[in-house]
Automatic annotation (TrEMBL):
The chain crosses the membrane at residues 53-77, 122-145, 157-174, 181-199, 211-231. It comes from Anthostomella pinea. This is Uu.00g037050.m01.CDS01. Belongs to the major facilitator superfamily. Monocarboxylate porter (TC 2.A.1.13) family. SUPFAM superfamilies: MFS general substrate transporter (SSF103473). GO terms for cellular component: membrane. It is a multi-pass membrane protein. The keyword Oxidoreductase does not apply. Its main location: membrane. Keywords: Membrane, Transmembrane, Transmembrane helix. The keyword Magnesium does not apply. One of its GO terms (molecular function) is transmembrane transporter activity.
Length: 260
């Protein structure tokens, strides 16, 4: 009894706890719920490392590898085709143009809107299907218009759906190491050029051009499956942007860059 009276005279051991308890009783009496502190995810506090972050670099490397391989090494495919033509170089330029067309202007295309809305995995999946389909249909093509549709349009559009959303995902995971991460990401274009060009050039005399391209297609399926399984876009706060940002044209450097 004496110890209990002594404890009461000393007062509460933790005054802050009494304040918290009183606040909870007030909220309970008023029938209100105390809001939890908001913890939004911001671009200013990326993890800047860890397995998930560096795995996104692998995904971006794969996306660049698959997307830019044909555009950066098209001379090998042009010479390896059974019936090369003077116009076949158009496919390489068309492929590269379709890769950047959805993102190369200030106009918010449907692809950019889907990417900004968080549908990165959907774009990666659709792009993977189109790129793979383009490779396998290229192996069956015998006429110019067939190669144009498969290797020019199908590969170009599919690669355009893949590489930019994957690159944007990499940028959201890094701040201090962002330069190195994006550099490794972009090196995928060179890796793809070496890989696909070497396979096509060395195996065409042995197994023929169609099966050499099909082998590239099987490798692409495996790479895209790995990339899709590792892809984890970050959920970040985003501002609503207009469909066409005319304010960007007020900056002379941007205008000069756009004009070329």
């Amino acid at each position: 009894m004496a110890s209990t009276i002594g404890d009461m005279e000393k007062g509460p051991s933790n005054p802050n706890q009494l304040i918290i308890d009183d606040a909870e009783r007030i909220h309970a009496a008023e029938g209100t719920v105390r809001p939890l502190p908001a913890t939004p995810t911001s671009l200013d506090d990326p993890p800047d490392g860890g397995f998930t972050a560096w795995s996104q670099v692998i995904v971006g490397h794969i996306a660049f590898l698959v997307s830019w391989a044909y555009g950066t090494s098209y001379a090998v495919f042009q010479l390896s085709k059974p019936t090369p033509t003077d116009r076949s170089g158009v496919m390489g330029r068309l492929n590269a143009a379709l890769l950047v067309l959805p993102y190369g202007s200030d106009f918010r295309s449907p692809v950019r809107c889907l990417s900004d809305a968080g549908h990165t995995r959907l774009l990666f999946a659709v792009g993977s299907v189109l790129v793979t389909l383009g490779m396998f249909t290229t192996s069956l093509a015998t006429q110019y218009w067939q190669i144009l549709l498969s290797q020019g349009f199908c590969n170009g559009i599919g690669g355009g759906l893949m590489f930019m959303p994957a690159a944007a995902t990499v940028a959201t995971y890094f701040k201090r190491k962002r330069t190195m991460a994006m550099a490794i990401n972009a090196c995928g274009a060179s890796t793809g050029a070496i890989l696909y060009a070497s396979i096509t050039q060395n195996l065409t005399p042995k197994i023929g051009f169609p099966w050499a391209v099909r082998l590239n297609g099987f490798i692409t399926i495996a790479l895209c499956a790995v990339g899709f399984s590792l892809l984890r876009p970050r959920k970040i706060e985003k501002r609503q942007a207009p469909i066409l940002d005319l304010g960007a044209f007020k900056h002379p450097p941007f205008v000069r860059f756009s004009v070329g």
